[in-house]
């Protein structure tokens, strides 16, 4: 599967009074990591809108398993991949490493969404384009 890795330094604003990352901040990092995954794979947000007629890739489910906390100044590596693709939905997995140790596993279910052709004021799920499937499932 296509994988993207990025290093992130934990900032002061990411932390709670106990100086550990406040868990919702990880979900923001995961959202950024999914967007970056698409960008690195060659599918910019402009491509999603103009080339594929999509309006977004909203999250419909998310969860995480936390193993090791991070604190202000720590560097973490977020490894992001699409685990499976269905017609319009897909599963994203984020493995967060602190050094060599697995610190967090994050999971998202997302859906490709475009305008409803019958009523453009409404949104409708859109099929995953074949070239995107090919890119995200390559070894």
UniProtKB/TrEMBL annotation:
One Pfam family here: 4HBT_2
This protein's record includes keyword tRNA-binding: no
Recorded superkingdom: Bacteria
Stored Gene3D superfamilies: Hotdog Thioesterase (3.10.129.10)
Annotated GO MF terms: fatty acyl-CoA hydrolase activity
Keyword Electron transport on entry: no
Keywords: Hydrolase
Name recorded for this polypeptide: Acyl-CoA thioesterase
UniProt source species: Bradyrhizobium hipponense
